[in-house]
Predict the structure.
Amino acid sequence: MKRIGLTILVLAFAGWTAPSSAWEDGPAQVRNCTWCHGMAGQGYTVAPRLAGQRPDYLESQIKSFREHTRDNPFSKQYMWSAVAAVGPLEARDLAVYFASIAPKPASDGDRQLAARGRTIYLEGIPEANVASCYACHGPNAEGVRDIPRLGGLAFPYLKMRLEQWSQGYHSGTGTPMPTVARSLGPAEIDALASYLSFVR
Amino acid sequence: MAAACAVAVRAEEPGVAARHGVEAKLEYCKTCHGLSGQGYRGYFPMPRLAGQQPQYFENQLRAFIERRRSNPIMANVAHVLSPAMISALAAHFKALDPKPFGSAPHGSSELGKRIYEDGIPEANVPACSACHGADGKGQNEIPRLAGQLYDYTVGQLEGWSKVRGQGSAVDTSAIMAPTSHNLTKSQVEAVAAYVARLQ
């Protein structure tokens, strides 16, 4: 935990000394986000990539943090306060801004597991009641409306998210993910997170 | 994982669909088809199954398994289901009665209502109500259309012959083929919006 605090601090400094043009284009609030999410919103340590994410999804999660519906330990520690003062209009602006940046894939999963992950992503495991992810997240894991893009997110982030639904944490109300995730074991989660980290 | 497999295996024993096997399977169907079977909009529209006619429901699962109806997602879902499981699932969904999903675009469904009730005689389109019923609830092998997702109905009617009745065997899908061809895009949209709102 200490380590993470430190890297975020270092990143904040890096941001100061090398201002990116992204800052000048975006809404004023952007700076308050890129300190943790990386200068071009590409993600940094525990803060996920926001670049290229579906704007409706980003907006729904900002709301979810503000209302304390998304409630895992990192949500509480970092995001509840980060968006406490972000109103609905600002949330929309920030969402549109981050969505417009081209995403870079993290490519940090285990390459050997990627093929297995791809099969589960496309077909599910019908005998074990694992739903195909493709039906909702799209053929290239690009997402649609408020269903998020998964392609290229970082392996540890994907793994953590897929574990958290079964641990009783939430990210929205009435979403299908708690049921989807309940059917996944550790081997399936590693395979899916590995595959997805490489998807462009 | 192991538990999920055990449940699935037990459910596939011939002739029995263990209660908890059915329950685990239902939960799985509902991740995509909505918690009360009302349908859901993923990357693809997932049709409403609530209140669907069991005979139609079973026919379609068989068509997915035999690839007479082509859909990669449902082909995978369906091929592991035993006949007993399919009957149990069909009976469960028939009994559900949630409100329509509410995905139809706003505006008038006057044209849709007219097509549904009277057909378009000059274009060889029969009244839908003649088969699907005045209330859109269907019967036997004729599906319920009431409350169906707008995008789903539009997609089915526009792509009918590319998806249904594949292969050489003639099946019930042939009954709808001429009607789907004779409707224009805007007529399809009008009638899809009309049935989407039927309770």
